[in-house]
C-alpha cells in the first residue's frame, strides 16, 4: 500500500509504512481530510488514499527511515593485477633420459605454477582448489592473457628471428633437439612459440591494465623469460624479449600519458637483450644490477660493464651496476639502490616503471650464487613504488629455486598490494660492492647531476638558483649550468693556476708535459703535473697525487650566492711539499680534477684519469730519473692512481712507501696485480691507508660494531679519529712522515747489508 505525502509543498508517493527522512526528523505530522469527505483516486486508477500530513500528528513507531536517493560510492580502490596462464607451462624441454626427468632443466615449467600456488594459498587470489576455501575474495585481479601479435614482436625483433621461433611449431623431435644443442642456452618444443607469444602478450596486457587505470599495479607471472633475447637471436632461456616488447607497445599506444619508461632489471644476469633494444632510445632508461665478473659471467660479454652508457641520443640512459663477484645479498643491493638506482630514477621522472624481476639472485638459487632474501626483494619493491606515481608492473624473468622464487614473489606481491616491507637485518655491504657502486657513480655522474658531489636534491639547472648567472643565461641563451660550465672556466682551474704561480715563485716549480693521445684538450689539465727543479737529479722523490683543493666559503642567506670575499682554498697536502723540500727531496705534485672545463666533460672520468696519469708519469719520467727511493702520497679519489700503478708496473725496486688518505666517500681500492701475486704482500708491507672514522669499512661506529679487518690487498688500513679528508691528513701528518723516513732508512740498511 502506498500513500501520497506532501513534504515542503511537494507531493511524493511513498509506502504507507515509510516516511522521508525530513518528515521523520520533525517527529509529528497532521492529517488533513478531504473537504468533501470522499476518498480520491490516483491517476493510475489505484484505489489508494491520498493523505496530506502536517507536523501535528505523532510519528508511527513502526516507521522506517529510508533515504530517497541511493547512496553513491565516491571511491573504489584499485586492486593489484595478476597475469598468469597455464598455457605458458607448455613450453618444456624434451627429455631424452630418465636422469633428465629426476634432475630437470632449471627453467622448469613449474616455476610459474609455484608462484601462482603460493599466492592462492596466502589468500591473494581466489582459487578454492589451492586455498582450500571458497569466496575469500580477490585481492589481486586476474588480467586476461593474449598472444602478442606479430606486429608487436617485430617492433623489437627481426622478421628472421620471429620466423625461426614460429618454425619450431612444425619441427620434428630431432630438429628441435638439434636447435636446442646449437642454441645459446635455449630449448624448444612444438609449444614454445605459442608460450613465448603468451608471455610477451601477457606482459603487454599487464602493463596496459596499469596505464589505463584498471589496476593500481601488476605482477606478470610469465615464461619463458625474455631479457636475454636480442633483436635477432634467442638466448639464455629467452625466446622473445617480453619487457622490451611490452615497453615498446606502451610507448606506441599511449604517447599522451607515457612518454618515458624506466626498466629496473634485478635478475642476477645482465639483460643484454633489453639493453640492446633501447641502447639508443632516450625514452627508455634501462638499469641493471647483475653479476659481471669482468664480463666472464653469463651472457659473457662486455655489454654489462659500467662503461656501457648508451649511444647516440640514448647516451646516459643505460645504467649497469656490475658485481665483480658472486655472493651479493641484501646489503649490497640496497646500497646500490640508495646510491645509484633511486637517485637516477627520481631525476629521470618516468611515467611508467617496469621491473625485470628475476629471482635468481635469491638465497639458495642454484645458478645465481647470491643471497638476496625475500625481505630484500620486498624492500626494493617498496622503493620502486615511489616512482612514476606507483604505476609499476613487475614482470618475471629468471629464478630457478622453486621455493625461493615463490616466497620472493609472494613478498613482492604483498608490497604491491600495500603491505609494508619486511625489516632487514643491519649489515654492511662488501668492499667489492662499494667499489663497484663507486665506479658506476664516476661514470654516470657525467649524465646525472643527482650523483655528483654536493648534490642534495637542489636543481642546479634552474636559473634562479645560479645568482649572477641569470643575466648570462639570457644573453647566451643557454638553459643549464652544465652548458655554461662547458664554455667557462671552473673555479678549480683558477685555483690550480694560482698554485702553479705560488710554487714557481717560492720554489721554481715547473710543469712536466704530457704528450699522449689519451690527454684531453682542456685547460683543466694544463698544469696537471708540477715538479721541483731538481726532480731529475734528486736521489729521493716524493710524488703527491690528489684531488683539487677544497673551497670553503660562506653563502649569502638570502640569495644563496657564494661570498667570494670569504672563500678560501684548503690544502693540507702543501705541508708535505714543505716537509719534502726541507728533506732535500725532489717533489712532483699531480692534480686530478673531478670534472674538466669544456665540452669533453662528458667523456672525462677522474678515476681513469688518475690511473692514466700515474702510468704515464712512470713510463715517461720516473723510471728514467736518478732517484732510487720514491714515496707516493695519494689523497681522495686520486689515490686510485697510486694503487693502480703498483699493480701494473714493476715498481718495487724504487718505491719504498705509499701513503694514502681517504674520506668516507672514497672506497678502498685493492691492488690487482698484472705482474705476480707477491705484489699484494709487498703493498701491504709498504703502504698505509688512513681513512676517516666513519668509513664504511669499519662498520657502524655509532653502534660500536666493526666489520672484518680489511684484507692485505688493500694495504695497511688505519682508522683516524676524525672526519673529513683535511682532518685525516692533519691528524696523521707526523705518522705519515715517520713512515716514509723509516721506509727510506730500511732501504738504506738493506743495501748496506
Description:
The N terminus is likely disordered. A hairpin with a 2-residue loop joins strand 1 and strand 2. The chain has three domains: 64 residues, no CATH class; 363 residues, Arginase, Chain A (3-Layer(aba) Sandwich); 284 residues, Rossmann fold (3-Layer(aba) Sandwich). Helix 8 packs across helix 9 and helix 11 packs parallel to helix 14. It is an alpha/beta fold and 753 residues long. Helices cover 33% and strands 17% of the residues.
Name the poorly predicted regions.
1-9, 11-32, 39-56, 458-470, 701-707
Taken together, the total number of domains comes to 3
CATH class of the largest domain: Alpha Beta
The general outline is elongated
DSSP helix count? 22
Write out the CATH superfamily name of the largest domain.
Histone deacetylase domain
How far apart the termini lie comes to 124 Å
Structural class: alpha/beta
Global Rg: 35 Å
How much helix is in the residues? 25-40%
Round the mean pLDDT to the nearest integer and report it. 84
Query: What is the CATH architecture descriptor of the largest domain?
Result: 3-Layer(aba) Sandwich
- Strand composition percent: 15-25%
Give a quick account of the main beta sheet: strands, pairing sense, barrel closure.
8 strands, parallel
Amino acid at each position: 500500500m502506498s500513500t501520497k505525502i506532501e513534504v515542503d509543498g511537494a507531493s511524493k508517493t511513498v509506502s504507507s509504512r515509510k516516511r522521508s527522512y525530513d518528515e521523520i526528523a520533525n517527529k509529528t505530522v497532521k492529517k488533513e481530510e478531504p473537504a468533501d469527505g470522499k476518498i480520491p483516486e490516483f491517476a493510475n486508477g489505484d484505489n489508494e488514499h491520498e493523505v496530506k500530513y502536517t507536523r501535528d500528528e505523532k510519528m508511527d513507531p513502526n516507521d522506517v527511515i529510508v533515504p530517497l536517493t541511493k547512496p553513491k560510492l565516491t571511491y573504489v580502490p584499485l586492486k593489484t593485477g595478476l597475469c598468469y596462464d597455464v598455457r605458458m607451462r607448455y613450453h618444456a624441454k624434451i627429455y631424452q633420459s630418465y636422469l633428465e626427468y629426476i634432475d630437470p632443466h632449471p627453467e622448469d615449467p613449474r616455476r610459474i605454477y609455484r608462484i601462482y600456488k603460493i599466492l592462492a594459498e596466502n589468500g591473494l587470489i581466489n582459487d578454492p582448489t589451492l586455498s582450500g576455501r571458497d569466496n575469500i575474495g580477490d585481492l589481486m585481479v586476474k588480467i586476461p592473457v593474449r598472444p602478442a601479435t606479430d606486429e608487436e614482436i617485430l617492433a623489437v625483433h627481426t622478421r628472421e628471428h620471429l620466423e625461426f621461433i614460429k618454425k619450431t611449431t612444425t619441427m620434428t623431435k630431432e630438429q628441435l633437439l638439434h636447435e636446442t644443442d646449437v642454441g645459446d642456452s635455449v630449448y624448444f618444443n612444438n609449444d614454445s612459440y605459442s608460450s613465448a607469444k603468451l608471455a610477451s602478450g601477457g606482459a603487454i596486457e599487464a602493463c596496459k591494465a596499469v596505464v589505463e587505470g584498471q589496476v593500481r599495479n601488476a605482477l606478470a607471472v610469465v615464461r619463458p623469460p625474455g631479457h636475454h633475447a636480442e633483436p635477432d637471436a634467442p638466448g639464455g632461456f629467452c625466446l622473445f624479449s617480453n619487457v622490451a616488447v611490452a615497453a615498446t607497445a606502451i610507448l606506441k599506444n599511449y604517447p599522451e600519458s607515457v612518454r618515458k619508461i624506466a626498466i629496473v632489471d634485478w635478475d642476477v644476469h645482465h639483460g643484454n637483450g633489453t639493453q640492446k633494444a633501447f641502447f639508443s632510445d632516450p625514452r627508455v632508461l634501462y638499469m641493471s644490477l647483475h653479476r659481471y665478473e669482468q664480463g666472464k659471467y653469463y651472457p659473457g660479454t662486455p655489454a654489462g660493464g659500467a662503461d656501457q652508457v648508451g649511444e647516440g641520443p640514448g647516451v646516459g640512459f643505460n645504467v649497469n651496476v656490475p658485481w665483480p663477484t658472486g655472493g651479493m645479498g641484501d646489503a649490497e643491493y640496497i646500497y646500490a639502490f640508495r646510491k645509484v638506482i633511486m637517485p637516477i630514477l627520481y631525476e629521470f621522472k618516468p611515467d611508467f616503471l617496469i621491473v625485470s624481476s628475476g629471482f635468481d639472485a635469491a638465497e639458495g638459487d642454484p645458478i645465481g650464487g647470491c643471497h638476496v632474501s625475500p625481505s630484500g626483494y620486498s624492500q626494493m619493491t617498496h622503493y620502486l613504488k615511489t616512482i612514476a606515481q606507483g604505476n609499476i608492473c613487475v614482470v618475471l624473468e629468471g629464478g630457478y629455486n622453486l621455493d625461493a622464487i615463490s616466497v620472493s614473489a609472494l613478498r613482492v606481491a604483498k608490497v604491491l598490494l600495500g603491505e609494508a616491507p619486511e625489516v632487514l637485518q643491519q649489515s654492511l655491504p662488501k668492499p667489492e660492492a662499494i667499489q663497484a657502486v663507486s665506479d658506476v657513480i664516476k661514470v654516470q655522474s657525467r649524465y646525472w647531476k643527482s650523483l655528483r658531489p654536493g648534490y642534495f636534491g637542489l636543481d642546479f639547472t634552474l636559473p634562479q638558483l645560479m645568482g649572477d648567472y641569470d643575466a648570462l643565461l639570457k644573453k647566451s641563451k643557454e638553459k643549464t649550468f652544465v652548458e655554461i660550465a662547458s664554455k667557462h672556466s671552473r673555479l678549480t682551474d683558477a685555483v690550480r693556476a694560482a698554485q702553479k704561480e705560488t710554487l714557481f715563485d717560492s720554489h721554481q716549480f715547473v710543469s712536466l708535459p704530457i704528450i699522449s693521445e689519451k690527454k684531453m684538450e682542456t685547460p683543466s689539465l694544463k698544469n696537471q703535473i708540477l715538479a721541483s727543479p731538481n726532480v731529475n737529479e734528486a736521489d729521493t722523490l716524493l710524488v703527491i697525487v690528489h684531488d683539487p683543493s677544497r673551497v670553503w666559503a660562506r653563502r649569502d642567506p638570502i640569495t644563496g650566492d657564494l661570498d667570494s670575499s670569504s672563500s678560501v682554498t684548503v690544502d693540507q697536502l702543501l705541508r708535505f711539499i714543505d716537509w719534502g723540500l726541507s728533506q732535500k727531496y725532489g717533489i712532483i705534485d699531480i692534480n686530478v680534477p673531478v670534472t674538466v672545463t669544456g665540452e669533453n666533460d662528458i667523456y672525462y672520468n677522474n678515476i681513469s684519469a688518475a690511473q692514466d696519469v700515474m702510468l704515464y708519469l712512470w713510463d715517461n719520467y720516473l723510471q728514467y730519473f736518478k732517484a732510487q727511493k720514491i714515496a707516493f702520497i695519494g689523497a681522495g679519489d686520486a689515490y686510485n692512481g697510486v694503487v693502480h700503478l703498483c699493480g701494473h708496473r714493476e715498481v718495487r725496486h724504487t718505491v719504498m712507501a705509499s701513503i694514502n688518505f681517504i674520506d668516507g666517500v672514497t672506497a678502498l681500492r685493492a691492488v690487482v696485480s698484472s705482474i705476480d701475486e707477491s705484489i699484494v704482500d709487498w703493498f701491504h708491507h709498504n703502504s698505509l691507508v688512513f681513512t676517516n672514522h666513519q668509513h664504511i669499512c669499519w662498520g657502524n661506529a655509532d653502534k660500536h660494531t666493526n666489520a672484518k679487518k680489511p684484507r692485505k690487498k688493500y694495504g695497511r688500513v688505519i682508522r683516524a679519529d676524525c672526519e673529513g679528508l683535511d682532518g685525516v691528513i692533519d691528524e696523521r701528518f707526523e705518522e705519515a712522515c715517520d713512515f716514509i723516513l723509516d721506509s727510506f732508512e730500511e732501504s738504506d740498511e738493506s743495501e748496506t747489508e
